[in-house]
Each structure stands twice: as structure tokens, then as C-alpha cells.
Amino acid sequence: MRASYAIGIDVGGTRIAAGLVERKGRLLKEAKALTPKTGPFGIIDAIIDLVNEVMEGTHAAEVAGIGIGLPAQIDFLKQTVEFCTNLPLAGVDVRSLVMSRVKHVVTLDNDGNCAGIGESRFGAAKGVRDFVMITLGTGVGGLLFLDGEPYRGSRGLGGEIGHMVIRLDGPPCPCGGKGHIESYLGRPALAEAGRTAAEAYTGTAIRDEAGGDVSAITAEDVVKAALKGDEVARGILLEAGAVLGEALVGVVNLLNPRLVVIGGGIGESCGFMVERAASVIEDEALAGRKDVSVVQAELGNDAGMLGAAAMAFDEYDSREGLHR
Ligand SMILES: [Zn+2]
Q: 285 and 170, same structural domain?
């Protein structure tokens, strides 16, 4: 029997979402929890609780498996967590710990990869054989989808678009590097730019969004002020869009994708930043590559969860000798 459902789990720095998903991407049941701050075993317990919650009333044989997207660098071939900045999961055998307590096969991947797989199967990149996904959130991640498949590199660690170098002497990146895309476009970087601007331009609405407290300004405050027409906030995000566009010129020249999908909380709320990036690509990319479409993601917060479920279906189908 061909299993009809898979469980997709998206583990974020602040919350964990789990869903029971049909093959065509319909989300049948969803459960969420705040990400525990009590160490790795607290996170594993929360994952198990969410699996049990979405599985209630469904027979185990109907479920293809569990896909888990983690905000971490994953060695996809070994299914191990190599590096994780926001959660204490580096070196933790997440897959075995979850599999020892559930009846299903677990597949891990990086959250940016899962979001890209979700957009590829059910969203903005449906049916596209060559595209690049970039997710702008607290971190900056993404996926290279080449010739109809996710491209993961020799050890499954590829596709870290957020850690491409923009400037050798640029600001520090949470990964330990310098001048990476994430150094300019991650939430901490945008919040810092917002605080600096609010100190320099006392009239900006960015300060009001944070209740008048400059030190409390977040990236979302900058986005909200910009969407209300504040010129200083718009300037910060247009500059961020230009940095994104510059980085993507290199990607487009190198890979000649048909589509660039920009997602994540910041990417999806900020259409004019995406347009700015698109216009830089149009101006700067090599001839013949300029027809690449730059679009916003379509699946919102569900992209990672749906992509994780799609990955679980794929794992099941290849195990059972079934073809998509
Ligand atoms: Zn980095």
C-alpha cells in the first residue's frame, strides 16, 4: 500500500510546527509549540509530543515517514547535525533520538532546503527544473535546485547562500565569518541598521514602532515603518535589496536559473526589497541570463513543514521502489 500521509516538522529558533500532510501538499492537521530552552532533550520531547498530536486518529501504516527541517547545517548523507548557531543541537543524533520513540523513518535536512523543496513541490517554483531559493529570516538560508533535484554538494552541506562573501572586510556573520550575505540581511543586521538610523534621524517612524525605545528596535519594526512610508526605513531595506541583488548577480551568472524565489519572514513581507534586488540583477547580470524571474515565495510559514513532508514521501518512495 502506498502511504497517503507524511509528517513534516519545521524546527525554528522560537517555535516548532508539525503537520500531517497529503501527497498533494494539503495540510490536514497542524500543531505548534514554543521551542524549549531546556537543552536538546527538551527539543526532542517537544518534537515527539507534536508527532503524537498530529498522528492522533491516523493509522501508523498510512504514514510514509517524518521529515524534519532544522535551522542547522546538516550532513545529509550521514544525517547528522554539523553546526547549529541558534539551538544546542550540534553533534546531537536527532534522527536516532526521534526514531527510537516513534514507528517511522526520520529524514533530516536544513530548514532552507526544506522551504525550497516545499516551494518546488507545492508553491512558487512548482514544475521549475532550475531555481534558487533564498530565505531571509533571523538567518539567511536557501536551496539550489538544479536539473530537477535539490543540489546538496559532496556531503550534503551545499546551498548555504547566506554565507556567500559580499565583502572580505565586511561586518561579522553569526557563523564566525565576515561580510557574508547574512551579515547584511539577517534580522540582527537589519535591527542594528534600524537602531543606528533611529539615533541619527530622530524623526523616523522606526523609533515609534518600537514604542520610542531605540534599543528595542527589531527588524520587523524597520519593515513596518517602511511599509507605512517612512523614508529612512525604506532606505535601509532598499540598500539591503541592493546587497541581495549584487549577491544574486553572481548566482545568476554562475547557474543560469529560470527562477529566483525569495522567502522567509523578511523576504515575504518586503516586496519592494525583492523588486530592488530584481532590478540590480536586470542591470548587472550577463547577457542571456537577465530573463530570470525574481519572485516572492508563496507558502509563507508552511514552506518548511510542507517541504519536510515532501522529503519524507520521497524517502519512503525510494525505499519502497516507487517513483514520483
Ligand atoms: Zn556566515
A: yes
